[in-house]
User: Which sequence fits this backbone?
C-alpha cells in the first residue's frame, strides 16, 4: 500500500490582512479529528458483532475462518491477490514461501498471512481508511479487534497524499522477500504504466502483458539486477489459501480503486480544511484550489489517463467477474458502469463505478457539487473540450443518461 511527501498549505486572509496558514495534512486537528471521531465505516459498524459472537465464524481452520470473515464482509474470495514482498505490517511472516493474501470489495480490504493476523482496512465516508488488526482465535477464544496505529506510518504518508488511504507497492524482492528496488513511488491508479506494476505480486490468469514485474524475485550480481522466475505456487501450497489464484483482473481493479480512494479522500480533507479556515466563506485562492481538486477527481472518474491494455487484453477470472457484477447498478436499458471491456481498456463506459462508493458519497457538499458540475461540463456532447476529446459524443450521452438514472443526488437540471 502507499504514501506522499509534500505539504500544501491553505492560506486565508484574516481581518487584519495577515495570512494564516494550516495544512490539510493535520488529520488529527480540527476540522478532521481523525483519531478522536467514531468512524462510520462498514467494519467499525460490525466490530461489536464480531467480538460478541453475534456474527458466527468458522473456527475449524485458519482458511475456514478467513472464508467466514470474507463472507460476513461480503468480499469475494476470488478477489484474492498474493503478494510475496515484505511490504506489510506482518513483514516477518511474509516471503516467497508464505505470501500475504489480500481481498477487497468497494469499501473493505482484508489482509491475511498464513500463521499471522487478520488486517482490515475499511473506508469511512469522511475520514478515509480506518485500520484494524486481530488474531485468528483458537477454539473458543474471543475475538479482540484493535485499531492499528502502526498502519498509519505507511497509509497516511507520501503515497496517499498524507491522508488515510491505500498503498500499493511494486518492488523486486530478494530471495527472502526484502525489496531490492522499487517502482512507481508516490503514485497510484490506473495511469501507472504496466512496466512499473506488479513487482512482488503473483499474477495469474489469461492476459497479454509481457513487461510487468510480477512473478519475479531477484539478486544483484556485480551491481546488476538479475531477475529470477517465481511462478505462482512454486514455493508455497495453493491449499493454504481460499482460492488458487492471484488473478490479473482483481489486480487491475485494486489499482484503479486505490487511485480513486487516495484522490477523493485528499479532496475531502482539503475541502474541510479550506471551509474551516475561511468559516465557510472561501477566498479566491481557496476557490481555485478546490476547483482544481474537483478537476483531478473528474479526470480520474472519467479514466482520462488510463493506461491502455496491450493488444489481446485480459480475460479475468469468471468467478471473480460474477462476484464483481453482483451489485451492478443499471439504467432501464441494462447499461452499467461495471460493464467490462477488457480488450483495450477496463470498462465499456468510462466513468468509474466508485462514484457509488462511500468515500465519494461522503465528500463535503462543496466538493461534490464541484465534481458534479465538472462532470456535467465534461459529458456535454455539444460542448467541445479538448481535455475530454477521447470520449465520443455517443459515450458522453450514454454516461449522462446512466448517471442520471443511478445517482439520486445530482443537482437539479444536471
Assistant:
Amino acid at each position: 500500500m502507499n504514501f506522499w511527501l509534500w505539504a500544501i498549505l491553505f492560506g486565508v486572509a484574516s481581518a487584519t490582512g495577515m495570512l494564516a496558514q494550516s495544512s490539510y495534512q493535520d488529520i488529527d486537528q480540527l476540522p478532521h479529528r481523525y483519531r478522536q471521531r467514531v468512524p462510520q465505516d462498514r467494519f467499525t459498524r460490525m466490530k461489536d458483532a464480531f467480538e460478541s459472537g453475534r456474527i458466527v465464524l468458522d473456527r475449524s481452520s485458519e482458511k475456514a475462518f478467513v472464508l467466514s470473515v470474507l463472507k460476513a464482509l461480503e468480499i469475494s474470495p476470488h478477489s484474492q491477490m498474493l503478494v510475496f514482498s515484505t511490504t506489510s505490517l506482518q513483514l516477518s511472516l511474509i516471503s516467497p514461501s508464505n505470501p500475504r493474501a489480500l481481498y477487497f470489495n468497494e469499501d473493505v480490504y482484508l489482509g491475511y498471512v498464513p500463521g499471522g493476523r487478520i488486517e482490515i482496512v475499511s473506508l469511512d465516508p469522511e475520514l478515509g481508511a480506518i485500520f484494524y488488526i486481530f488474531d485468528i482465535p483458537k477454539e473458543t477464544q474471543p475475538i479482540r479487534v484493535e485499531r492499528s496505529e502502526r498502519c498509519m506510518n505507511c497509509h497516511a504518508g507520501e503515497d496517499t497524499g498524507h491522508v488515510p488511504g491505500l498503498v500499493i507497492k511494486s518492488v523486486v524482492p530478494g530471495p527472502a522477500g526484502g525489496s531490492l528496488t522499487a517502482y512507481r513511488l508516490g503514485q497510484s491508479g490506473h495511469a501507472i504504466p504496466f512496466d512499473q506494476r506488479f513487482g512482488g505480486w503473483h499474477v495469474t490468469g489469461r492476459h497479454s502483458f509481457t513487461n510487468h514485474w510480477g512473478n519475479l524475485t531477484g539478486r544483484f550480481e556485480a551491481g546488476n539486477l538479475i531477475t529470477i522466475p517465481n511462478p505462482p505456487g512454486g514455493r508455497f501450497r495453493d491449499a493454504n489459501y481460499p482460492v488458487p489464484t492471484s488473478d490479473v483482473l482483481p489486480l487491475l481493479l485494486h489499482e484503479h480503486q486505490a487511485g480513486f480512494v487516495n484522490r477523493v479522500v485528499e479532496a475531502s480533507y482539503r475541502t474541510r480544511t479550506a471551509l474551516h479556515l475561511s468559516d465557510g466563506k472561501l477566498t479566491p485562492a481557496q476557490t481555485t484550489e478546490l476547483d482544481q481538486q474537483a478537476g483531478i477527481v473528474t479526470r480520474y472518474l472519467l479514466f482520462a489517463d488510463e493506461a491502455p491494455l496491450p493488444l489481446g487484453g485480459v480475460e479475468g477470472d469468471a468467478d471473480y467477474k460474477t462476484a464483481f457484477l453482483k451489485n451492478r447498478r443499471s439504467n432501464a436499458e441494462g447499461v452499467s458502469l461495471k460493464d467490462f471491456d477488457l480488450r483495450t481498456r477496463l470498462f465499456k463506459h468510462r466513468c468509474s463505478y466508485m462514484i457509488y462508493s462511500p468515500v465519494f458519497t461522503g465528500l463535503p457538499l462543496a466538493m461534490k457539487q464541484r465534481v458534479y458540475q465538472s462532470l456535467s461540463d465534461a459529458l456535454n456532447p455539444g460542448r467541445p473540450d479538448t481535455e475530454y476529446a477521447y470520449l465520443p459524443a455517443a459515450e458522453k450521452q450514454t454516461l449522462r443518461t446512466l448517471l442520471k438514472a443511478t445517482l439520486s443526488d445530482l443537482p437539479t437540471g444536471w
Summary: The chain has nine helices and twelve strands.
